[in-house]
Amino acid sequence: MVDASIDTENVLFDFCTTNFLMAVPDETDILSNTAAFSIREEPAKDPEKVNAEYEITQDLTEKAIFFFYLMTYFIDYIRGSSNDLTYTTDHGTLKDIANERRDHVASALNGIIGRRIIDTVGDEDDVASLTLKCYYLGIYLSTQSPELYIKEVNIDSTSLTCIFIDKNNNQKRYGKIDATWSEINSDDQPGESLVQLLQRGYPQNPPTRATP
User: Fold this and answer.
1) Residue 209: is it exposed, middle or buried by C-beta count within 10 angstroms (0-12/13-18/19+)?
2) pLDDT tens across 149-189, in order?
3) From CA 192, how far away is CA 137, in angstroms rounded?
4) d(C-alpha 203, C-alpha 163), whole Å
5) How far out from the chain centre does Cα 57 lie?
6) How many CA atoms lie less than 13 Å away from 9 in the CB half-sphere?
7) Percentages (nearest 5) of helix, strand, coil residues in the chain
8) Is the pLDDT assigned to residue 101 strictly greater than 50?
9) Helix H segments across the chain?
10) In Å, how far from its chain's centre is CA 165?
11) Is it the case that residue 85 has pLDDT exceeding 90?
12) How far apart are CA 116 and CA 112, in angstroms?
């Protein structure tokens, strides 16, 4: 589900929206970087269909409700059932829910990054394939430091590197140097490798209970 949810071609679920829903649901400030939408449901003549109107809003809580609604709607559609989740604290504090979600997402991304990036280091990347890899990394970095979540992902098409900008406008770069994915220091020399990043990442053991 994590793998399929990170879709670089999806207009609604752009990087900031996906990052919010998957890694930092307790950091609504990230939604200031997304399009301004909200949703208002109206009674539908056909009970099997959703009749909704979209409105423009800059309110971050309304944006959070809107995107959470879309996520749960798509999940319910795929499953063919409804779990009636809302963007509330019904299942614990928002921080508790966010921490548990980050554990599951980080654990899933650890495996995805291993398969899709580290194990394919010998493959030639184009901008499209690199963009998806950068999205994986950006969300993973957000799970590790949610207080400094990644708010922007850029691609250097010349050097084929990922450029991440965090909440405080600090910049990190990742790319391949000598057939190894690593952080790239300011002097363009390799820093910590992606393998090392995953090895010290949290959680060390996969969580056992699914987030509601």
Assistant:
1) exposed
2) 999 999 999 999 999 999 999 999 999 998 999 999 999 99
3) 14
4) 24
5) 22
6) 4
7) 40, 20, 40
8) yes
9) 2-5, 15-22, 60-79, 94-113, 127-144, 194-199
10) 14
11) no
12) 6
pLDDT at 116: 93
pTM: 0.74
Residue with tokens 């071609």: 9
Is beta strand 150-156 parallel, antiparallel or unpaired with respect to 161-166? antiparallel
Q: What single letter denotes the amino acid at residue 20?
A: F
Q: Find the length of the chain.
A: 212
DSSP result, 183-209 = EE-TTS-EEEEHHHHHHT-S-SS---S
- DSSP helix/strand/coil, 93: coil
How would you class 25 by CB atoms within 10 Å of its CB: exposed for 0-12, middle for 13-18, buried for 19 or more? buried
